[in-house]
UniProtKB/TrEMBL annotation, chain B:
One of its GO terms (biological process) is amino acid transport. It comes from Bradyrhizobium yuanmingense. GO terms for molecular function: transmembrane transporter activity. The chain crosses the membrane at residues 6-27, 34-54, 60-79, 91-110, 141-160, 190-211, 223-251, 258-277. This is ABC transporter permease. It is found in: Cell membrane. The keyword Transmembrane applies. It is a multi-pass membrane protein. Belongs to the binding-protein-dependent transport system permease family. LivHM subfamily. One of its GO terms (cellular component) is plasma membrane. The lineage of its organism: Bacteria, Pseudomonadati, Pseudomonadota, Alphaproteobacteria, Hyphomicrobiales. Keywords: Amino-acid transport, Cell membrane, Membrane, Transmembrane, Transmembrane helix, Transport.
Length: 406, 287
């Protein structure tokens, strides 16, 4: 009798263990959009990124296939300490499976560490620093949209080739600005140019006149803006006022988003060259998505490349989970699967994810249209050059990422 | 050396915004004893009103300079009548919390509808271009800002310190009951004073619209510095806040040249030093 009971207990235990193993791989997903919801980057990520995630969930049709997908969003206020605190809470308490957006390089590098430590997933579409797939690369992180190396490579090289061989940098004084300046300097030097000077300004500066005067006095041919969002728009606007461009110097927006161009207006922004990997008016696929997106935005804005990246990255993540037949809630395993599968969506076209976590797709060099060339609201860019996916990003031969086998 | 002159001048331009804003704060604190944290939001509203006047009503910059302060001033007076007046006699903390809350709500509403990167506002045609001063290229608009705000600051100082009306105002803060006994409507005067302080903030907003983006958070970024200016100058001192405003603009400008990384902290370092040495501020009287 005792034996029967113990056998039964053993059987129950095995059954329970089996059940919990099945529990580990289930059909629930929780997505966390961690972004700047209220500060200077809120327009290029922010609520638009959450909307893009929402649209990805709807378009994936997962709910109809019996999956349960939850979406949460939080504001990291551009502060790495707040970002990591939210990340820990999301992973430990709320069981978030994947972090999306995470713009601001300072926050991204901090969250990158937490995600690695806790074996979660970071699909970064907002941060710029190329360190995410180089020195700081992680088996849990994919860098989706763009990075400082790519921006420097495309915009920097094009400008030096066009005769801009002396540079002066206006740099946002944190991880992102430093990375962008470093990567651009490397490209400028390699292309035969020279960097005359640099000035580092605090993040979120309202008045750039002092810095612009220093740039003007340097007589450099190119004033490179290694900043983003509100900082860049203020720089451009005030540079026009101080006659930087009319004085013969050229402004280089190393990182500019469509929301910045919209905020500046074409009159001020015309003629600027910069690089993006997504523009709403590239092809039928991007136009269809952007139209739907814009209709649901409160201010009818077109998607930025960061927001488009959230949509595209999530769709690929969903595909990987479907291929695995469920969600194992094991970050590194899912990321490995995502790297195995080629990417393909309407916004970024066909692409791949490299061993170091770098997502590859073409980079486009744009010029802002003159007001008379624009046919309507948000018709802002002229495509003037394309760098192929395998040329756009840092080659693996230069990588110091330990995930890359040499 | 030439670069130094340029930085001094640029500092003076920023100083004029600090002066205009801290002046309004000083007037409100001096007369109403309210620490007006909504000042930054009202400054932002001034810029937005100018934007709306231009884009919806076709009303140009010059009229906006007059109309925006009046419109925002009326908004301020409504705030004072409906909310702030109930705080008379209570601890400063209540006024601070209330106005801070108002600021958050106003900014939140604007951000909800207009996003964070802001809207463009062009420099008026008459003030376009610039002149070469030899040591720097001075945009005409910036020169205009310095001259105009200096004039407004001095006019306000004159109004409060040298006129009959100003005398009533100052008396009403000292002893409202006695002034009321002379047949002067003190509550109305206080409302109008708040309106004046708010109007000054809105005026600064209009002035800054063509330089900066018209953004919901433009005031939030500025207000903390302006509070430091007021503390350094001495709470409630009119002339003190004008002079400190311009002076700190210049000091900040120089920091941007010599050690740019510290440019957004230098004002606070100074504030700490001043508070350690002279807790009432540079021109403040002991309470």
């Amino acid at each position: 009798m005792r034996r029967i009971i113990s056998t039964m207990l053993l059987g129950t235990a095995i059954a329970l263990a089996g059940a919990s193993a099945a529990m580990a791989q289930d059909k629930t997903i929780k997505i966390g959009v961690l972004t700047d919801n209220s500060g200077l980057y809120a327009d290029l990520g922010g609520p638009g990124s959450t909307l893009a995630a929402q649209m990805a969930i709807e378009d994936s049709g997962l709910t109809a296939k019996g999956w349960k997908v939850d979406l949460v969003s939080a504001d990291h206020q551009n502060k790495p300490d707040i970002g990591t605190a939210i990340a820990r809470q999301w992973i430990d308490v709320e069981k978030v499976d994947v972090f999306m957006d995470v713009l601001n390089s300072g926050v991204a590098l901090a969250v990158n560490n937490v995600v690695k430590e806790k074996n979660s997933i970071l699909i970064d579409t907002g941060a710029a620093t190329s360190d995410l797939t180089n020195a700081q690369c992680s088996p849990n992180t994919i860098h989706w949209v763009y990075d400082t190396y790519m921006l420097a490579n495309s915009t920097g090289q094009a400008l030096v080739k066009a005769g801009g061989d002396t540079w002066y940098f206006l740099t946002a004084d944190y991880a992102f600005g430093h990375a962008l300046e470093r990567d651009t300097t490397a490209v400028v030097l390699k292309s035969g140019g020279k960097v005359i000077g640099t000035v580092k300004h605090p993040l979120n500066t309202a008045d750039f006149s002092s810095f612009l005067l220093q740039a003007q006095a340097s007589k450099a041919k190119i004033v490179g803006m290694a900043n983003a969002g509100g900082d860049t728009t203020n720089t451009i606007k005030q540079a026009a006022e101080f006659g930087i461009v009319s004085g013969g110097q050229k402004l280089a927006g190393l990182l500019l988003f469509i929301t910045d161009v919209h905020a500046l207006g074409l009159k001020v922004a015309q003629g600027l060259n910069f690089t993006e990997t997504f523009y709403w008016d590239l092809n039928d696929g991007t136009r269809a998505f952007s139209k739907r997106f814009s209709e649901r935005m409160k201010n009818k804005a077109m998607p930025s490349m960061v927001q488009a990246g959230v949509y595209s990255g999530l769709l690929h993540y969903f595909k990987a989970l479907e291929a695995m037949g469920g969600n194992p809630h094991d970050g590194a395993k899912v990321v490995a699967k995502m790297k195995e599968m080629p990417t393909d969506d309407a916004l970024f076209g066909k692409g791949t994810i490299r061993a170091d976590g770098r997502k590859l797709h073409p980079a486009y060099l744009f010029e802002v249209k003159k007001p008379e060339e624009s046919k309507g609201p948000w018709d802002y860019y002229k495509l003037i050059g394309t760098t192929a996916a395998d040329q756009a990003f840092r080659p693996l031969s230069e990588s110091v990422c330990p995930l890359v086998k040499k | 050396m030439q670069a130094l002159y340029a930085q001094l001048l640029v500092g003076l331009i920023n100083g004029s915004f600090y002066a205009l804003l801290s002046l309004g704060l000083a007037v409100i604190f001096g007369m109403l004893n309210i620490i007006n944290f909504a000042h930054g939001a009202l400054y932002m509203m001034g810029a937005f009103v100018a934007y709306f006047l231009l884009n919806l009503g076709g009303i140009n910059y010059w009229w906006a300079l007059l109309l925006a302060p009046i419109i925002v001033g009326i908004f301020g007076m409504i705030l004072e009548r409906t909310m702030l007046q109930w705080l008379t006699g209570l601890d400063h903390l209540y006024g601070l919390l209330l106005t801070f809350g108002i600021a958050l709500i106003v900014q939140g509403v604007f951000q909800n509808y207009f996003g964070s990167s802001g809207l463009p506002y062009a420099i008026p045609d008459q003030l376009r271009g610039g002149m070469n001063l030899g040591f720097m290229f001075l945009p005409i608009y910036r020169g205009w800002v310095v001259v105009f705000s200096l004039a407004v600051c001095l006019a306000t100082w004159f109004l409060i310190e040298k006129t009959q009306l100003g005398a009533y105002l100052r008396a009403a803060t000292e002893n409202p009951t006695l002034v009321r006994a002379f047949g002067i409507n003190v509550p109305r005067m206080i409302t109008l004073t708040y309106g004046l302080g708010v109007g000054l903030a809105a005026l600064a907003g209009v002035l800054s619209a063509p330089i900066n983006q018209v953004r919901p958070l433009m005031g939030a970024d500025l207000i903390i510095v302006v509070f430091a200016v007021v503390v350094i100058g001495g709470m409630g001192s009119i002339m003190g806040s004008i002079i400190t405003g311009f002076a700190l603009g210049v000091i900040e400008g120089l920091t941007k040249y010599f050690y740019p990384e510290a440019s957004n902290t230098v004002v606070f370092v100074l504030m700490v030093l001043v508070l350690l040495v002279k807790p009432t501020g540079l021109t403040g009287r002991a309470a």
